[in-house]
Specification:
The longest helix is centred in the middle third of the chain and has 20 residues, at 96-115. Strand 1, helix 2 and strand 2 (85-88) form a beta-alpha-beta unit. The chain has helices at 4-16, 69-77, 96-115, 128-138, 169-174, 179-185, 235-245; strands at 55-58, 85-88, 120-125, 145-151, 195-200, 219-222. It is built from 7 helices and 6 strands, in the order H-E-H-E-H-E-H-E-H-H-E-E-H. The protein is α/β, with parallel strands linked by helices. Helix 3 (96-115) packs across helix 4 (128-138).
Length: 247
Amino acid sequence: MLTARQKTVALLTLCLLPLVPGPAQAAPSAPSAPSSSAPSVPARADGARIQRRPVVLVHGYNADPGVWGSLRSDLRAAGWTDADLFSWGYDTHQSVNEVLSGQLAGYVDEVRRRTGADRVDIVSHSFGSLVSRWYVKFGGGAGTVDHWVSLAGPNHGTSTAWACALWDQACRDMTPNSYVQKNLASGDETPGAVKYATFWSTCDEVVNPDSSVPLAGAANTGVGCLQHNDLLGDPGTKAGVRAFLAS
């Protein structure tokens, strides 16, 4: 259990650090509409566009879709278009299993309907990793997700979440040995035919311990000493995400 001083520091970390300034990329209620100024993308020898799976970006606790600006730019430069990229916005103070995973399932279904894709890729940051993992493991996502990525996800819980667990359901879900954590860890941590990857830092001030991020059966990549939010814009991490999604 944390001391009073540690709880104060952890609370400030959870409430303030996950906020990364940036313009929202999509309204929370529906997938973002394709941009009329989407950049050109690679084409096959016959001139046809190289098809990409849609990518659904799931932000973390106390954040919004604007955190994905840097990764979206990198993915566009690598051949994805705005019509392939969807940033889901949601209320991060609600329950992973009772509310948020179902909302994400509905969002993914709408992305698939709009794009005609059978499967999507999911890239999640921090708390978003728990929401998307629950969807994949228990909400039907094993049949609709091809690649799943976690950036600094508290996949086995984080002690810093105790600082706000008394009044916030999402924080309770992030605490070690919570109902959500126990169920996600039960049996196979990476079920189905989904390809899983995690990226973790040795200097993460939000996820404690750092070893909470990697999952058995996933491609687990250490990115060095980066702060929690720095993984969102780190060139090496973004390159790793791009390569994994293209695999």
